[in-house]
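> call design_seq(struct)
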C-alpha cells in the first residue's frame, strides 16, 4: 500500500465546488491556498503535496529531463492521485460536489493527465502553464468538462505550440477549452488570475 498524501483540507460552503490545488515543482500543499481562496472564496480546498522528490523538491511525477516525462511513473501517479481524491470525497463528505483542479506547471500537467486517464474525477480545471503530459492511444470521451488553460507566449519551459497542442487534444476528447495567453513567461500574472476567476464565475454560475 502506498503512503498517504500529505495534504491540507479547508472546508467551504456545502453548495460550492471543491478546488483541488496542485502545486508546481518545489511547492507544497500550502502554496496555492491563497490562490484558491481568491479564485472561489466559497469553495472547499483540497491540497495534496506531490510525493516525488527531485533534488529535494516535491513533484507529482518523475521527469527524465526538462519537458521529458517518465511516462510509466506519470501513469502510476495519476491513478494514485485519482484514488486519493475519491477517498477524500468520502473522508470529508464531499460526494456530489464538483471537483475543479487548479494546477500550476507540474501540478497542471498531472491535472491534464487526470482528464486523459481518469476522466470521471474532474468537472473542470484551471490549468496554469500546462503542456501535453502524454497522448493515450485511445482518447477518453470527456463529458464536456470546462477547462481554462493559460499559457505564456514567452515561456522558456513550455513552448506555446505545446500548450496549443494540449488545448486541441482536450477539445478532441470533448472538453470545452478556454485558451488564455499572456505575453510573459512561466511566471503567473495578476491579469490571468483575474481572467480565471471571471471564467470560474461564468462556467460554474449555479454553484457560486
Amino acid at each position: 500500500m502506498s503512503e498517504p498524501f500529505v495534504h491540507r483540507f479547508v472546508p467551504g460552503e456545502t453548495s460550492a465546488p471543491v478546488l483541488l490545488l496542485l502545486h508546481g515543482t518545489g511547492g507544497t500543499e500550502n502554496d496555492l491556498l491563497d490562490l484558491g481562496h481568491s479564485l472561489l472564496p466559497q469553495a472547499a480546498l483540497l491540497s495534496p503535496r506531490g510525493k516525488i522528490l527531485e533534488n529535494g523538491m516535491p513533484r507529482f511525477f518523475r521527469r527524465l529531463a526538462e519537458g521529458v516525462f517518465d511516462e510509466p511513473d506519470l501513469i502510476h501517479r495519476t491513478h494514485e492521485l485519482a484514488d486519493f481524491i475519491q477517498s477524500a470525497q468520502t473522508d470529508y463528505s464531499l460526494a456530489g460536489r464538483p471537483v475543479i483542479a487548479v494546477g500550476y506547471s507540474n501540478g497542471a500537467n498531472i491535472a491534464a493527465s487526470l482528464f486523459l486517464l481518469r476522466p470521471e474525477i474532474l468537472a473542470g480545471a484551471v490549468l496554469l502553464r500546462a503542456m501535453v503530459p502524454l497522448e493515450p492511444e485511445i482518447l477518453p470521451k470527456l463529458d464536456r468538462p470546462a477547462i481554462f488553460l493559460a499559457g505564456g507566449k514567452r515561456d522558456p519551459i513550455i513552448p506555446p505550440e505545446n500548450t496549443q497542442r494540449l488545448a486541441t487534444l482536450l477539445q478532441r476528447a470533448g472538453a470545452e477549452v478556454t485558451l488564455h495567453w499572456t505575453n510573459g513567461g512561466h511566471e503567473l500574472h495578476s491579469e490571468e488570475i483575474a481572467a480565471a476567476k471571471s471564467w470560474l464565475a461564468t462556467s460554474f454560475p449555479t454553484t457560486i
